[in-house]
Amino acid sequence: MCGIVAYIGNKQAYPIVIKGLKRLEYRGYDSAGVAILNGKLQIYKQKGKVSDLEGYIEKKLNGRLVHGTIGMGHTRWATHGEPNDINAHPHTSQRKDFAIIHNGIIENYDTLKQQLIKLGHHFESDTDTEVLAHLIEEYMQQNSLSLDEAVRMALNNVVGAYGIVVMSEDYPDMLIGARKGSPLVLGIGDKEYMLASDATPIVEITRRVVYLNDGEMVIARRDGFTLKTIDNVVKTPFVQYLELELEELEKGGYEHFMLKEIFEQPTSISNCIRGRVNHNSDYIHLGGIAQYIDQIAQAQRIIIVGCGTSWHAGLVGEYIIEELTRIPVEVEYASEFRYRNPIINPNDVVIAISQSGETADTLAAIQLAKSKGALILGICNVVGSSIPRITDAGIYTHAGPEIGVASTKAFTAQVTALIQLALKIAQKRGINREKVLTLLKELMQIPQHIQAILKQNDKIKEIASIFKDASNFLYLGRGYNFPVALEGALKLKEISYIHAEGYPAAEMKHGPIALIDENMPVVFIATKDSSYEKVVNNIMEVKARKGRVIAIVTENDSQASKLAEFTIQIPEVDELLTPILSVIPLQLLSYHIAVMRGCNVDQPRNLAKSVTVE
Ligand code: G6P
């Protein structure tokens, strides 16, 4: 995790770096720091958020500006060493004449540290990053290497993951960036350059970017840049144009990014289907996988990997793909899959789902599946991120930037992408054309159905106010809505810190029922589908034990609504599509509970949006 950003050019670097850090804060926010070069390195670091750092600098400098046209900053999610001022980045060399910011983990840092201590180095922090700074210095001193050569040599001797930027008092016209395992993007402006963990800070100065590949480094000077590998092979940069709009990165009048993103779902779903399906025909065009569709349709098995919310989308995908295509599907946590020597055959298709496209465990799972010869597809949101670049083919969800740490619109877009993929595969395998047509028609109506659900926001807020002080919550659903129960519980845990569990409704009898009493809110997803009657029975079982039931029901529902203390209605759709709708009240419920409890919903404690460490 961690976010890094750097600027070199003719403008004042400090405001650009601070603004960039705020954009990247979703990647970690336990401490932050900047280094600005103006003859000497000026380094400021502070535990807490970027705004704390800003306040600290303002106080320290009595409101004066930090001057310098080259600078960099870091927002941290601690791995090595507790979050405090000393462990915050940037870190410096022994002579303190150059500084480094780092996102990732140097796995052999302890061995290197011991070697460097023997050579007389003293360390101030507990971080792996400081070791890298000293290692670079050692190469410069012992072998009289230039800064870029020393960085290159040092990187050849570290094991682990890094996205780094280095700058030095002796090289006031140079920023060096490199990546392996952690993302790094170069922005190319007019005699100015930026390096950042993602493109969001870069749009402020330019839309021309180069996404660095693993093992590549860039040396940027005000009048140009060089791209090469850490093996010293010069590369021709592949310059891409960013489609990102600045408004997409702002709150747009909403109190929080999470609320904005929940309310954006009619648009994000429309964007995910636009140009891909047509309501008058059974046309489905998924350009990113078109070349491989025959091979996908002949898969012996589909394995879906992902983490967190993306894994939940994968579970929904399993139900949908198996139902429509009859291809067996397995869904795995990427973190488990990568370490358990899984059986993967060349006829298997692996689908990696990830909002960020940078999750370390998902990337590692892809590498493993690739080595066994499977075809790898990605379902990702962030264009140009690592997963789309290492997969054979894929589908972008086009949900737009998701900044709130708790995933909302990415989930519904992932499920939408999976439905389209399942329909496309099913079509190839000769599914009943009428079924495809019906589902496509219903899919096109999903955005307006979501609008109808969002209109119940006030009612959901009311329900939230009644349950905001609960210590536990249970979420129950069956079939397509079992993963939604998991997702609802995850949302609540993530942002309100209330303990919540999601369970298949029928499994309640095998354990969770013991927890039910008059203090336990139980959220049922009881929509009209093939398991409706069974879920109604489960509601009765909870009621009999005095549990307080909140039910997500279909419009015109009677049975479940009579039993539940509170109901939230969603429009009736084919059961296969219900997860996209039923999850929305749960997102809103968690949001309002978290706000009422005074939690920071966009930046919940201990979490980060992009988990680039395993
Ligand atoms: C983190 C985020 C979650 C996300 C998960 C997977 O835990 O906080 O919201 O679902 O990572 O991230 P990905 O970017 O791969 O979907």
Question: What are the defining features of this structure?
Answer:
614 residues; alpha/beta; 6-stranded antiparallel sheet; 19 helices; 36% helix; binds 6-O-phosphono-alpha-D-glucopyranose
Summarize the structure in short:
This protein is 36% helix and 23% strand. The protein has 614 residues and is an alpha/beta fold.
Describe the model.
This protein is of the alpha/beta class and 614 residues long. Helices cover 36% and strands 23% of the residues. α17 (532-544) links the parallel β22 and β23 (548-554). The longest helix has 22 residues, at 433-454. It starts with a strand and ends in an 18-residue tail after the last helix. The structure holds 6-O-phosphono-alpha-D-glucopyranose. 6-O-phosphono-alpha-D-glucopyranose binds next to α9.
Give the secondary structure arrangement, pairings included:
Layout: E1 3-8, H1 13-24, E2 31-38, E3 40-47, H2 50-60, E4 70-76, E5 91-92, E6 98-106, H3 109-118, H4 128-143, H5 147-155, E7 160-168, E8 171-180, E9 185-188, E10 193-196, E11 208-211, E12 216-221, E13 224-229, E14 240-241, H6 257-263, H7 265-273, H8 293-297, E15 301-306, H9 308-325, E16 329-333, H10 334-337, E17 348-354, H11 360-371, E18 375-380, H12 386-390, E19 393-396, H13 409-428, H14 433-454, H15 457-467, E20 472-477, H16 482-496, E21 499-504, E22 521-526, H17 532-544, E23 548-554, H18 559-563, E24 566-570, H19 578-596
Parallel strand pairs: 15-16, 15-17, 17-18, 18-19, 20-21, 20-22, 22-23, 23-24
Antiparallel strand pairs: 1-4, 1-10, 2-3, 2-4, 5-6, 6-7, 7-8, 8-12, 9-10, 9-11, 11-14, 12-13
Bound molecules: 6-O-phosphono-alpha-D-glucopyranose.
